Amino acid sequence: MGCSAGHPTPGKVLLLKMADIDNKEQTESDQKEDVEDVEDIEEEDASEDSKARQLTVQMMQNPRILAALQERLDGLVGNPSGYIESLPKIVKKRVNALKNLQVKCAHIEAKFYEEVHELQRKYAALYQPLFDQRCDIINAALEPTEEECKWQGDEEEELSDEMKEKVKVEEEKKDEEKDKPKGIPEFWLTVFKNVDLLSDMVQEHDEPILKHLKDLKVKFSDPGQPMSFTLEFKFEPNEYFTNEVVTKTYKMRSEPDESDPFSFDGPEIMECTGCHIDWKKGKNITMKTIKKKQKHKGRGTVRTVTKTVPNDSFFNFFSPPEVPENGEMDEDCEAILTADFEIGHFLHERVVPRAVLYFTGEAIEDDDDDYDEEGEEADDEQEGEEEADEENDPDYDPKTEAEMLLLMSTGGRCLNDG
User: Fold this and answer.
1) Which ranges constitute the DSSP H helices of 62-181?
2) Which of 44, 187, 355, 377 pairs with 414 at a CA distance of 20 to 30 A?
3) At how many degrees (to 10) do helices 63-76 and 398-409 cross?
4) What is the pLDDT of residues 375-388, one digit of tens each?
């Protein structure tokens, strides 16, 4: 049977079919291999993602890595981004115009604080009669009435008239058996001992003197005078010194500094001056006498030398270091004055206006140092727990931690970089 040239023979058809089957099988095989390759890649990617997540969790739980990261971030704060430097000259000139406006704002703010000072002076005059009554009650110059002594926290349970009379008789009997105290004994000493900022200053040998402190006042500078305030410590006659009033004056700057106007944030204490205390003979507790033995180099004889040296005392508060005219001080003097300014401000703003609440302990003091210490202790405990977790973690790799610390210390550059 002849074959037409236009149609393939059955054998060729078979071969073509077989070829098609082979091609199809090869295609399916290739597709299957491709799928397997994709699955392998996906598994590898998933494995890498899992490792990355584990590493991230490990980093976030490790205080050393977090500290290094925080240090790195802190180093970036305040660094110029380069954007301002890249601005066109005309734009920079406009920014300078905004800065000049900001300086004018600072001077207006200074005027605001001057008026606040005037208001403080005005209201100090209104408070003073009340503070004078407080002083009189403390020092037994005034006995408050029964009505004035009533306080809502002292309300007693309802008692019968007979019981009230019995209680009154008992109280009067007790008062007759012992000496009646005058005023409120040791008022200001108790206040100082209840204030953390002041209690560290009060030494045991200061207490007998501070028992004679009758009053503490704040006196503001007169109108038109440079801004300042004076703390007046009024003492009753005592065996230690002859001063009736011991003072400490704080001078403030209420206008922006021309060399750094943007740092202005209200009045700040610039210097303080104390006063001379006229100590009676042998009563100056700010000085102490010590004896030292000295050995002669040549003869070998020993002699005793008496020296007078400074002594810790609350009354050193009235002899602050002087600020040099050039304003340059050593670190010790600067630290002393910084603490002094803080104490003066606290006495002025908090203690004098709210003295009775510090006497009773009701005043709430913000003691940042204690909170810091508690925070540090908590951090130490947490760090200890995390170190223990690392030791028990089978996936913990100290090499990985070291690499991460090195990575952050190099500013994010790759570890393999030269």
Assistant:
1) 63-76, 83-86, 89-138, 146-149, 161-177
2) 44
3) 10
4) 444 455 555 554 54
> How far is the C-alpha of 145 from the C-alpha of 136, rounded, in Å?
13
Average pLDDT in the chain: 77
Tokens of 205: 């040998």
Residue 363: which pLDDT band, with cuts at 50, 70 and 90? confident
Whether the pLDDT of residue 311 is over 60: the answer is yes
The token pair at 66 is: 């977090």
d(CA 269, CA 253): 6
pLDDT band at 11 (very low <50, low <70, confident <90, very high): very low
Does residue 131 register a pLDDT over 60?
Answer: yes
pLDDT digits (tens, 9 = 90+) for 143-175: 999 999 988 765 554 556 666 666 666 766 666
27 alpha-carbon distance from chain centroid: 73
Provide the 3-class DSSP secondary structure of residue 204: helix
The SS3 assignment for 308 reads strand
Cα distances (Å, whole numbers) of residue 394 to 58, 390, 391:
12, 8, 8
Closest CA to 252 of 340, 341, 335, 328: 341
Query: Which residues are CB-neighbours of 312 under 8 A, at least 6 positions away?
Result: 203
- The Cα–Cα gap between 141 and 285 comes to 30
pTM as predicted:
0.63
The burial class, CB within 10 Å (0-12 / 13-18 / 19+), for 201 is: middle
Residue 354 has pLDDT above 80, yes or no: yes
> From residue 85, how far is each of 51, 92, 182, 228 by CA, in Å?
42, 8, 72, 42
Q: Do 63 and 382 touch, CB atoms closer than 8 A?
A: yes
Q: Is 271 left (phi over 0), alpha (psi -120 to 50) or beta?
A: beta
Residues 180, 142: Cα–Cα separation, whole Å: 15
Q: Which residues of 49-60 are buried (b: 16+ CB within 10 A; e: fewer)?
A: eeeeeebeebbe
Cross-strand partners of 289: 308
Is residue 202 within 8 A of residue 192, CB to CB? The reply is yes
Pairing of strands 302-310, 287-295: antiparallel
Confirm if 289 and 317 have CB atoms less than 8 A apart: no
